[in-house]
Structure formats: structure tokens, C-alpha cells
Design brief:
By secondary structure, the chain is an alpha/beta fold. It has two domains: about 300 residues, Alkaline Phosphatase, subunit A; about 120 residues, Arylsulfatase, C-terminal domain. It contains 14 helices and 14 strands. Helix 6 packs parallel to helix 7 and helix 7 packs across helix 12. The longest helix is centred in the middle third of the chain and has 31 residues.
Length: about 425
């Protein structure tokens, strides 16, 4: 297999809503296989999504562009789609000479065939064990009779998306779970973390199975294996927000003999950097008109000029929740548009046990237009210093950065409220009509 010997296969697993809720990131959950992957490869600690919600974040992974640029300002299954002519990662990988495959779940388009993959494998499946079984069979067949082209494989799992309490899945002990540091210690929160941990165990198990298959077949020697996710956990003050628990996401990469194992990087990265990085690794084209930046040089331990800030946003989820934010190494600034609850919770979080614990605090007060956090002194983002005269210069600078970014990217929010799709309007009216 001549091309594969020169360029690596790329196999990446993307899961729903795990954030950095993994043992190697300091979460109190048992994930031996993911921890071993990090020990063998590279772990990125400061990797942020462009939006703490499924489709918009994944759309940035696929295009290297922000959701308000590529058109996916809400969920794909309720009418939000890429703008006409938007080019995706598998389309570029096809041009680079890769054989592109999607296994299982995707949440970037209502029609998976429009994403550009040459081969779709059970796109209606999302259960990690089902998708993994099919992927393992494929990898064994490919290893036995490899093609001329290197592989680009995306495997998508539904877990650990809510609901957290499912029949047939394991569950942790609520009495002994580690409560996430930004949340209070309450019974409903413990119950939900116990369910979340059980789903994470399943993800960890199948990641171990995939790695074992790559090793048994010898494919691992020329494969860049990646584990990542779309956004933070579906817990209060995480998913659906611009706080770090919503935007910080797991990214672990491993390639024997190429990536030095046991490396941890703290440089700021955005998930719109994912697509250009993979294209750089693959020797593919360098796309124009994207905001993502390749971090291949960082991945390979070479000289690299890091970002000094990243942007995140929210527009539509199940309700209208427009926010734009910038994060530097020390500060976080969030601009809120319109009158909203103090902390918005997406419907799946709101109706969950943890969400019910927090409604009284999050939905009784309004949200200020400007929020500013000093992450060095307040890493959990509890002390808003936007009104502190001592931070006036910082606030002005970060406000200017967000305004300039919105103008440079032709953010439709500059023209006023972003209208919903018809399906979005119906969902917003029906799901929330009693709340």
C-alpha cells in the first residue's frame, strides 16, 4: 500500500457531550483506556469548541469556520444546515486522495450523504457498541486487503448524550461520585453524574476495543488515532453556555513513532483548528477563507506560534440564546444579546435531575449584557468583574475584539435578532410552552 506508507491513515472517534469528563483530565470517572491513550499520545488541555452545542460545534470541526459563518447556528435536525457551497473535511480529504468513511452517528446535516463521505456505514446507528462492532469488522477486512488510498475514518457515538439513566447501561454510585467543581453538591446532581459516568465507561470500553484492533492488525503503526467530542457535559452551567465547562473539550491524539507519548499541551486551541490540522497531516490543500489554524507543528513537537485568544458563540438551541465570547489565557468576556435567564439550560439539561436542582437559581434573575471573568483568580467563573473599575481597560479591549471578530466574519447578529427556521420556531413554541 504505497500511499499509506507515506501518509497516515486517520481514524477519529467523536462522541457527544463528554467535554473533559475523563480520568486523564482530572474528572472522577474510571477511564483506563482513554487514560492510556493519553499516556501513549498527546493530550490537549485547552482545546475549546466554537459553540457548546452539538451541530454548530461539529460544523466548525467540519469546516474550520464559525457557526455564524457556515450557517449552522442551531441544530441540524431542526432545520439548520450549512450555507450553500460550504466545503467539509471529508470533501477536502477526498481531494487529498483519501478513502473517506463515516461510521455511525453524525449531527452536522439532516442528510449524511451530503457531508462528502465516499462511504456511509449505518448512519442511523449511534450506540457505541453497535458502531464499534461494524468499525472493527471493517478495519480487519481493510488490513487483510488494503487499498491504494489511505483511510480517513470518522466514527460517531451517541453516548454520553442524555438521557443519563438508560436501561442496559451501567451506573456509578451516586454516593461516591465526584461532583463537578462548578456545581453544588445536591442529590439530583449526584444522580445525574452517576448516570453520566456509566455512559462514559461504555465509551472508554469501545475505545479500548478499537485501539486493540488497530494494534492486532498492525494498522496502528501508520494510523493517527484521535478521540474528541463536540462540547462540554450536558450539565448545568456547561452545555449551552460560553463558560469553560461548556467550551472545554477533550482532544487526544496518538501515532506511534511520530507523536511523543505522554505529552500534555496547555496552549489555547479552537476546534475550528481541527480540519486544517488534519489536512496538514494528510498533505492536503490549505483551505482559503477559514479561521481555523493548523497545529500540526505543535502536535509533532516542532516550533509553533500559539493562539492568544479563541472565540465561542451561541445563537439557537431549543431556544434563542445569542451570545458571543472571547477567551484569552487569563480572561473571559461574554456579550449577551437581549433579555435571558441568568444561566440558560438546554431542554435536556433543564428537565434532568441536575437541571431541576438549579432552576430556582438560574431562572429567577436576568443576565447582564456584559460579563468578564479573571480566570487566573476565578477559574470557575463565578465573580463577574465587568463592573469593576479596575478591569475597565480589559473590558474595553475584549469588547473591541468581539466586535471586530463579528464584523470580520459578517455575523448576522450585528443586524439584529437571527430568525429561527420554521422547525426551530415550532420547537421553541412547543417544547418550552409550559416553562
Amino acid at each position: 500500500m504505497p500511499q499509506t506508507a507515506q501518509r497516515p491513515n486517520i481514524v477519529y472517534v467523536i462522541v457527544h457531550d463528554i467535554g473533559q469528563h475523563i480520568g486523564c483530565y482530572g474528572a472522577g470517572v474510571n477511564t483506563p483506556n482513554l487514560d492510556q491513550l493519553a499516556a501513549d499520545g498527546v493530550q490537549f488541555n485547552n482545546y475549546h469548541c466554537t459553540a457548546a452545542q452539538c451541530s454548530p460545534s461539529r460544523a466548525s470541526i467540519m469546516t474550520g469556520r464559525y457557526p455564524h459563518e457556515n450557517g449552522e447556528m442551531g441544530l441540524a435536525h431542526i432545520g439548520w444546515q450549512f450555507n450553500f457551497g460550504e466545503k467539509t473535511l471529508p470533501m477536502y480529504m477526498n481531494e487529498a486522495g483519501y478513502e473517506t468513511h463515516l461510521f455511525g452517528h453524525q449531527h452536522e446535516h439532516s442528510d449524511a450523504s451530503k457531508l462528502g463521505y465516499q462511504h456511509l456505514h449505518s448512519p442511523q446507528k449511534s450506540a457505541a457498541k453497535q458502531v464499534t462492532a461494524e468499525l472493527i469488522d471493517f478495519l480487519k477486512e481493510y488490513a487483510a486487503s488494503p487499498g491504494e488510498q489511505p483511510l480517513h475514518v470518522c466514527a460517531g457515538f451517541g453516548e454520553p448524550h442524555r438521557p443519563y439513566h438508560r436501561e442496559g447501561y451501567p451506573k456509578d454510585d451516586p454516593a461516591t461520585v465526584q461532583v463537578q467543581p462548578w456545581l453544588p453538591d445536591r442529590p439530583g446532581i449526584r444522580e445525574d453524574i452517576a448516570g453520566l459516568n456509566g455512559l462514559v465507561w461504555v465509551v472508554d470500553e469501545v475505545v479500548g476495543q478499537i485501539r486493540a484492533t488497530l494494534q492486532e492488525t498492525g494498522l496502528d503503526q501508520n494510523t493517527l488515532f484521535i478521540f474528541t467530542t463536540d462540547h462540554g457535559t450536558a450539565m448545568p452551567r456547561a452545555k449551552g453556555t460560553c463558560y469553560d465547562p461548556g467550551t472545554k473539550t477533550a482532544l487526544i491524539m496518538h501515532q506511534p513513532g511520530v507523536i511523543e507519548g505522554g505529552t500534555v499541551y496547555d496552549q489555547l486551541l479552537s476546534n475550528c483548528d481541527f480540519m486544517p490540522t488534519l489536512l496538514d497531516v494528510a498533505g492536503g490543500p490549505e483551505p482559503a477563507d477559514i479561521w481555523g489554524r493548523s497545529f500540526r507543528r505543535l502536535l509533532h513537537g516542532e516550533s509553533y506560534s500559539p493562539r492568544d485568544h479563541i472565540f465561542s458563540e451561541m445563537t439557537w438551541h431549543d431556544r434563542y440564546n445569542p451570545m458571543r465570547s472571547v477567551r484569552t489565557n487569563r480572561y473571559k468576556y461574554i456579550r449577551n444579546f437581549g433579555s435571558r435567564p441568568l444561566v440558560y439550560m438546554p431542554w435536556d439539561v433543564y428537565q434532568g435531575l441536575a437541571g431541576q436542582e438549579m432552576i430556582g437559581e438560574y431562572y429567577t434573575g436576568g443576565r447582564p449584557e456584559h460579563q468578564l471573568y479573571d480566570l487566573e483568580n476565578d477559574p470557575l467563573e463565578f465573580e463577574d468583574v465587568a463592573g469593576d473599575p479596575g478591569y475597565a481597560d480589559v473590558l474595553e479591549e475584549l469588547q473591541g475584539m468581539v466586535q471586530q471578530w463579528m464584523e470580520q466574519t459578517n455575523d448576522p447578529l450585528l443586524l439584529g435578532d437571527v430568525p429561527p427556521t420554521p422547525a426551530q420556531a415550532h420547537r421553541a413554541a412547543t417544547v418550552w410552552q409550559s416553562n
